Amino acid sequence: MEYEGWKVGQEIRKLRNQKNMTIEELSFKLGMSTSHINQLELGSRKMSIDLLYKIMGELEADANTVLAIPVKSEKRKGISIDAELEGIPSEKKMYLMGIFSQMIQTFPGELC
């Protein structure tokens, strides 16, 4: 799977618009500059795992939705990464989140 910053940015914009929220309002709630969020929505800026969690909270969406990850099979349809993490013991959950964070930080080239 390849990270596609433009798709992620479009999904964030769509979710923000569904909440009738301006980019300025989202920026304020996230404690980020409007320029930072605009660059994220345009796909020209990387997103940290911390920012992903903040966006998930403000837009009330799971990670799959924010990251524009399509559901591939009927068996997994409607099951988010967050839901799957719910059933994992906290030690394993922290381990997996650390791996995901490391993957984002060491990804060759630009994520967004």
Question: Short description, anyone?
Answer:
By secondary structure, the chain is mainly α.
CATH superfamily: lambda repressor-like DNA-binding domains
Structural class: mainly alpha
Rounded to the nearest angstrom, the distance between the terminal CA atoms is 14 Å
Binned, the helix content reads 55-70%
Question: Sheet with the most strands?
Answer: none
- Average pLDDT for all residues: 84
Helix-strand pattern, N to C? HHHHHHH
Features of this protein?
434 Repressor (Amino-terminal Domain); single chain; DNA binding; Cro/C1-type_HTH; 112 residues; Transcriptional regulator, contains XRE-family HTH domain; Lambda_DNA-bd_dom_sf
Protein described:
With 112 residues, the chain is mainly α. It has one domain: lambda repressor-like DNA-binding domains (434 Repressor (Amino-terminal Domain), Orthogonal Bundle), CATH 1.10.260. 62% of the residues lie in helices and 0% in strands. The chain contains seven helices and no strands. It has helices at residues 5-18, 23-30, 34-42, 49-59, 63-66, 81-86, 90-106. Helix 1 crosses helix 3 (34-42) and helix 2 packs across helix 3 (34-42). The longest helix has 17 residues, at 90-106. It is globular. The protein starts with a helix and ends in a 6-residue tail after the last helix. The model has no long low-confidence stretch (mean pLDDT 84). It comes from Anaerobium acetethylicum. This is Transcriptional regulator, contains XRE-family HTH domain. GO terms for molecular function: DNA binding.
